[in-house]
Amino acid sequence: MSGEGNYINIRYSNDCLKLINDTFQRFLDVDSINYQSELKKTLEKIGLFFDLDRIYIYYFSKDPTFMQIECQWNKKDIRPKRTIQEEEVVYALPWLIREIKNNDFVAINNVEKFPAEAVFEAEVFLKEGIKSSLIVPLKSENKLIGFVGYENLSKSMTWEEEQIKILRDISKAFSYTRARIVKKEAYESTLNGQAILLNNCESQIWALSNVTSYATVNEAHAKFFGKKKSDLEYQDLYDIFDIDTANKFSEHNWELFRKNEPAEKELEIKNCKGENRLLKIKSKPQRDEIGNIKYLICTAEDITEQRLAERSLNKAKEQAEAANIAKSQFLANMSHEIRTPMNGIFGFLELLQSTNLSLEQKEFIREAKSASEVLLHIINDILDFSKIEARKLTMEKIRFNLRNTIEDAVSLLAPKAAEKALELYTMIKAGVPEEVIGDPSRLRQILNNLISNAVKFTERGEISVTVDYLEEENEIAVLSFEVKDTGIGICKEHINTIFQYFSQADASTTRKYGGTGLGLAISNELVKMMGGEIRVESMLGEGSTFKFDVRLKIAKGASEQKFAFEKLQGVNILIIDDNANNRKSVSSYLQGTGMKVFEAKDATSAITTILSNANTKNKISVAIIDYQMRDMSGYELATTLKTIPFAKDTKLILLTSVTQKGDAKVAKEYGFSSYLGKPVRRDDLLGCIAIVLGLKKEYEKEHQLITKHIVKEVKNTLKPRILLVEDNEMNRKIVISMLKSHDMTCDVAVNGKEALKAVSEKDYDVVFMDCQMPVMDGYECTYEIRMLEGDKKHTTIIAMTANAMEGDYEKCIEAGMDEYISKPINFDTMFNMIEENIKESGLVTDYNIIDNNIDYFVETTGLKKDDAKEILEEYIKCLPNLLEDINNAIDNNDFDKLAGVTHELKGSSGTLRIISIHELAIKLEEAALKQETDECARLFAKIKDLLH
């Protein structure tokens, strides 16, 4: 800025040059002690020389948005720039700061000619009475660190070029000096800090200038030898230590110098007390400019006690491992020895129960089975407890259907709940993923423990199992489980103890209800291993609610629903049950299907709903009726509905807590199209609705009653080929008898060698293989069978073992077995496995390929009709496996496999002139190559429709 006023003409006179020279000379010798005083004297000289009113120096703080005056001078009658030295906000003067940053100086000659944007600056200059000002930036290494201001308050002046140049030159002395002092202080602070660290460090540190000479050491190293630092620094080893110590050190040092790289070595040497101490020495060479070692820097830790502790610990570890192996072996043997007779007890009780018995005898059998189940439960709890205690319990990570796992756990306890007339229902909320990755058996175990306790401690009322989906993060689902009962409840003072081992609510509970007190403690550990926590809310006499959450990875490419929901659009469903929670549970399963759901709390409301909607678009298509209601039973309601013309077309499905032999026949007589046991499974319910409405063709026969067991009944008409490999006569007798009770037979082998011979001569649906046998055990036999079969076929082999320890399942799978069933055998599980592995070639009559395609096949090939039929029948036998491979490939998004098996279907159907399938197979192969999941599923569904 320029302005009017008095002019000061300054030439480069001798006085001026002397001022500059004196200033730089003065600041050459300035240190941190006399810096402030010398700086103030210099500012005074400059001010008097140039006839200025005041001079000040600002430096920016560590936070560059703040600044502070470091030094200032003013004439006697002029007020100082700042009376208090404190941090100020930089951008209180935004225009001025920008000018300082962007220019070599800022000269203000006339305060009345500030630019428009300098509003704050004009106000400050007016307030302080500043008439002219020169501001010079202070820099260090080209970085702005502050500024010096020269001001006049008593008169105006115009800053000349020569004057500005002189003041800029002088100002450089300020920035140079301050930068030097700041760096020196920082360096001294670093040195002092390093000295404090080095001399107070417990680790020994020293530097060697050559193999036998110290350069420097810290206090710890000198103290180790009972000496002072000055006794060792710049001294030769042979002048300090005895000959043995010096020889040891020099030999050690020579090796480190020779390696010429970072190294680590242990050295045993005597300390000042004459004790042998083991030092762990780490060394690192410090090199000069040409790469030669200047110093060898060494650090050492005294690891004598550590090594002694390690030896002691290793010895204890070896002893503990030996004891643990013995303990594990004992548990395995105990498990095997107890489970083998338990298998006999369960088996013979099961067989005895199927004979003609008096009511008293049946009661004895029931009590014996109950006691046996309790004993087995205790054995399993003790084994799990021992695994958890030894940290040997691990979680599997396999893909499984979450809904099925939950429903299996609930269904297992349904009969016991029904015995006590308890309502047991499941609520799996929308959004819960169908398929996840984790350990289904352990999740089922947690649910079984909680539901079993709920049934045990509840005399009347209901038990609910609710599952909700909380959140998802990185494909990990957080799932919330709640098991609520209306049982005896828990006292407040006992709530915090129930998850401890061998603990129950109180002693009277143990006496009345029994139990080991392990179930909840084990569940607590399992929940923690699944990344969650378990808690309980309870009021004495009002019931308990156990809540836990787990984290499970969501499986990619989860399979779709078993049938298309679009077929159910517009279907009206009526749920009739006097229990609101049961209605809510069933209703939740129908959400998202397109069906319209109505509810009725009793038979009267149901009849009213059916009649009021009879001639509307809301006409009831299916009525789901509870067997037992307060005003009228399910059978009575069905009888009533049969007399109402408007309800004649309504399909009836019966829900009952207990399904017994003969129920199907009675339900059919009362007009029910289907009946399902509670707790209801969603897939069973939806499949049942689809079948009774004629939307699914599977197992559809005129006037047939649909139940969840119908698939099993169809499969059981086939005769499975079973081989039992078992050396224990009692176990053989039990299995053979149980198979006979289900109209099945089996071949028998008493060791692995006989089994290998049997499998080589006959094709079996399933082989039940005992693991521990003489001559050849089950593992070796399975390996030999797999070698024998190669890629030609794969016989299903299921391990049957009384062992139940960690790694038994993995050992069986590694040997080549397909599944694992522990003793005592759960025969429901065994029969499920048999049903799953029956070859379905007997179902070929369900296919209409022969009737629909034989004429064209005969016409195009010239074959006789009998020959053509025989070829098509052989083809049909291969179809189930081929279709299963396609289905599995679609479920798993395995497009390479899908393209391969579809190509096989395309070729075979084309050769046999089955044009409809051939054309669809072409499209399916193209969709597989393009990896179009939805299109593949749609085309495969059309192929299946053609085959049924």
UniProtKB/TrEMBL annotation:
<dbReference type="GO" id="GO:0005886">
    <property type="term" value="C:plasma membrane"/>
</dbReference>
<dbReference type="InterPro" id="IPR008207">
    <property type="entry name" value="Sig_transdc_His_kin_Hpt_dom"/>
</dbReference>
<keyword id="KW-0418">Kinase</keyword>
<feature type="modified residue" description="4-aspartylphosphate">
    <location>
        <position position="770"/>
    </location>
</feature>
<dbReference type="InterPro" id="IPR036890">
    <property type="entry name" value="HATPase_C_sf"/>
</dbReference>
<feature type="domain" description="PAC">
    <location>
        <begin position="263"/>
        <end position="315"/>
    </location>
</feature>
<dbReference type="Pfam" id="PF01590">
    <property type="entry name" value="GAF"/>
</dbReference>
<dbReference type="InterPro" id="IPR005467">
    <property type="entry name" value="His_kinase_dom"/>
</dbReference>
<feature type="coiled-coil region">
    <location>
        <begin position="306"/>
        <end position="333"/>
    </location>
</feature>
<keyword id="KW-0175">Coiled coil</keyword>
<dbReference type="InterPro" id="IPR036641">
    <property type="entry name" value="HPT_dom_sf"/>
</dbReference>
<dbReference type="InterPro" id="IPR011006">
    <property type="entry name" value="CheY-like_superfamily"/>
</dbReference>
<dbReference type="InterPro" id="IPR003594">
    <property type="entry name" value="HATPase_dom"/>
</dbReference>
<dbReference type="InterPro" id="IPR003018">
    <property type="entry name" value="GAF"/>
</dbReference>
<dbReference type="InterPro" id="IPR035965">
    <property type="entry name" value="PAS-like_dom_sf"/>
</dbReference>
<feature type="modified residue" description="Phosphohistidine">
    <location>
        <position position="903"/>
    </location>
</feature>
<dbReference type="InterPro" id="IPR003661">
    <property type="entry name" value="HisK_dim/P_dom"/>
</dbReference>
<dbReference type="Pfam" id="PF13426">
    <property type="entry name" value="PAS_9"/>
</dbReference>
<dbReference type="InterPro" id="IPR036097">
    <property type="entry name" value="HisK_dim/P_sf"/>
</dbReference>
<keyword id="KW-0472">Membrane</keyword>
<keyword id="KW-0808">Transferase</keyword>
<comment type="function">
    <text>May play the central regulatory role in sporulation. It may be an element of the effector pathway responsible for the activation of sporulation genes in response to nutritional stress. Spo0A may act in concert with spo0H (a sigma factor) to control the expression of some genes that are critical to the sporulation process.</text>
</comment>
<dbReference type="InterPro" id="IPR001789">
    <property type="entry name" value="Sig_transdc_resp-reg_receiver"/>
</dbReference>
<dbReference type="GO" id="GO:0005524">
    <property type="term" value="F:ATP binding"/>
</dbReference>
<dbReference type="Pfam" id="PF01627">
    <property type="entry name" value="Hpt"/>
</dbReference>
<protein>
    <recommendedName>
        <fullName>Circadian input-output histidine kinase CikA</fullName>
        <ecNumber>2.7.13.3</ecNumber>
    </recommendedName>
</protein>
<dbReference type="InterPro" id="IPR029016">
    <property type="entry name" value="GAF-like_dom_sf"/>
</dbReference>
<feature type="modified residue" description="4-aspartylphosphate">
    <location>
        <position position="626"/>
    </location>
</feature>
<dbReference type="InterPro" id="IPR000700">
    <property type="entry name" value="PAS-assoc_C"/>
</dbReference>
<keyword id="KW-0812">Transmembrane</keyword>
<feature type="domain" description="Histidine kinase">
    <location>
        <begin position="333"/>
        <end position="554"/>
    </location>
</feature>
<keyword id="KW-0902">Two-component regulatory system</keyword>
<dbReference type="InterPro" id="IPR004358">
    <property type="entry name" value="Sig_transdc_His_kin-like_C"/>
</dbReference>
<keyword id="KW-0067">ATP-binding</keyword>
<keyword id="KW-0547">Nucleotide-binding</keyword>
<dbReference type="Pfam" id="PF00512">
    <property type="entry name" value="HisKA"/>
</dbReference>
<feature type="domain" description="Response regulatory">
    <location>
        <begin position="572"/>
        <end position="693"/>
    </location>
</feature>
<dbReference type="Pfam" id="PF02518">
    <property type="entry name" value="HATPase_c"/>
</dbReference>
<dbReference type="GO" id="GO:0000155">
    <property type="term" value="F:phosphorelay sensor kinase activity"/>
</dbReference>
<keyword id="KW-1003">Cell membrane</keyword>
<dbReference type="InterPro" id="IPR000014">
    <property type="entry name" value="PAS"/>
</dbReference>
<feature type="domain" description="Response regulatory">
    <location>
        <begin position="721"/>
        <end position="838"/>
    </location>
</feature>
